[in-house]
Write a structure and sequence with these properties.
The chain has about 400 residues and is of the alpha/beta class. A hairpin with a 3-residue loop joins strand 3 and strand 4 (about 70-80). It has 15 helices and 10 strands.
């Protein structure tokens, strides 16, 4: 940070550079590459100011929305030739591409970016499909299936969507989640990510603390298509423990409770959880509940369980293709995704996670979670594996 401040004093920008419909462009001199679950951070770059560029630069293929703050949208330019929308090759876009492959940082004031969107007359979301999930439930496989068809630009876990989840939840104590300013921000972020109005986009949202967006995105973008993916908690919880490791798994709930909407923080005060598994189960229920609320309100949204997908792969793909208007002739390409480890080469791969010992929930923890789910969230969990059973069953292939 100190070295960056020195660079800024020597090379600029100056006050006049912030005026007009321009973007500020920085060359990245040192890229402190990282791999962690905390998300993007522009402070991991040492950057030298290059000058102003026209705001139309954000329309270029290798210029990608990286993050935002209350005043600015932050883009990175990644090296040319990177297949940043290839979810098979790069399962986690925001970590492996928008940061680690970045060569420039481009900063655009929010009002300038919004004016650019107005001139472009971008859509109301009819070219966007979003997958929400509870995590560790096959969402990367899902994105891989879509990617194999080459019918969508697949954005796998773009960090600005995660930032939206954090921002809206943290401010929910003072600002209603569906306030006009929040919906405007949601619309802007999604349309800046999906910037080609004549192309289709599939977004796999980051599973960490973004479940409440299910209640909001369709209010900002009425024509967007959304789907929900879930899995039996007896498999999800151990998988998260393997992913995080014992220390981070134990400490994450304390951090996470400050990043969930206020209404769930109030529910949490009613819960007595004396084990880390109970705390994690509560967080997963917080991800499930927004989808349940949408169902209760009569909204139609595709829901799939991981168990039903692997039980009948072809039936799932046919239904998915029908919903997303994908040619059924592409079914063999989609089915090929099931034979690939969707996170090969990452710390999340089956090979690496399979080296950890199997974790089993205790009978007491199982007995605790079912009445909490039913009484506080209205969600019924099957006794043997804690799979949600009162979600719409039309598209779950015999759960």
């Amino acid at each position: 940070v100190v070295l960056q401040n020195v660079f800024n004093l020597i090379y600029g920008p100056n006050e006049t550079d912030f005026k007009g419909n321009k973007a500020l462009c920085y060359d990245i001199k040192i890229n402190f590459r990282f791999y962690h679950l905390g998300g993007n951070n522009v402070n991991f770059f040492l950057k030298k100011y290059r000058g102003t560029v026209d705001v139309s630069v954000i329309d270029e293929e290798n210029v990608i929305l990286y993050d935002y703050n209350p005043q600015e949208f932050i883009y990175t330019r990644i090296r040319k030739g990177m297949e940043h929308r290839n979810a098979t090759k790069y399962p986690i876009v925001f970590q492996l591409n928008t940061h680690n492959k970045a060569v420039q940082v481009i900063i655009v004031r929010q009002n300038v970016a919004k004016e650019w969107l107005r001139r472009r007359k971008l859509t109301d979301g009819s070219n966007i499909c979003i997958l929400h999930s509870i995590g560790r439930c096959g969402s990367t496989l899902f994105a891989n299936i879509i990617s194999q068809t080459k019918q969508f630009n697949v954005l796998s876990e773009p960090f600005p969507i995660t930032r939206l989840g954090f921002t809206l939840a943290q401010n929910s104590e003072t600002t209603p989640m569906d306030s006009p300013e929040n919906l405007d921000l949601i619309r802007t972020v999604f349309l800046l990510l999906c910037k080609k109005e004549d192309e289709r986009y599939f977004i796999k949202s980051t599973v960490t603390l973004t479940g409440h967006l299910i209640n909001l995105v369709h209010k900002a973008l009425p024509q967007v298509k959304e789907m929900f993916l879930h899995r039996a908690l007896t498999n999800v919880l151990p998988s998260f423990q393997k992913l995080f490791g014992p220390l981070r798994f134990f400490g994450f709930p304390r951090h996470a409770f400050n990043l969930i909407p206020m209404r769930y923080r109030k529910i949490w005060k009613k819960v007595e959880a004396d084990s880390v598994y109970k705390k994690w189960a509560f967080l997963i229920l917080v991800h499930m509940h927004p989808y349940y609320l949408e169902c209760q309100a009569g909204r139609t949204m595709r829901a799939y369980s991981f168990e039903s997908i692997v039980r009948n792969k072809e039936a799932f793909c046919r239904d998915l293709f029908s919903y997303l208007d994908i040619n059924q002739k592409l079914l063999p390409q989609a089915l090929s995704a099931f034979s690939i480890d969707s996170q090969e080469g990452l710390p999340l791969s089956k090979k690496i996670l399979g080296q950890y010992p199997k974790v089993v929930l205790s009978d007491e923890e199982r007995r605790w979670v079912r009445p909490v789910a039913q009484n506080l969230f209205g969600i019924e969990l099957r006794q043997e594996d804690l799979l949600a059973t009162n979600f719409p069953q039309s598209y779950t292939f015999g759960n």
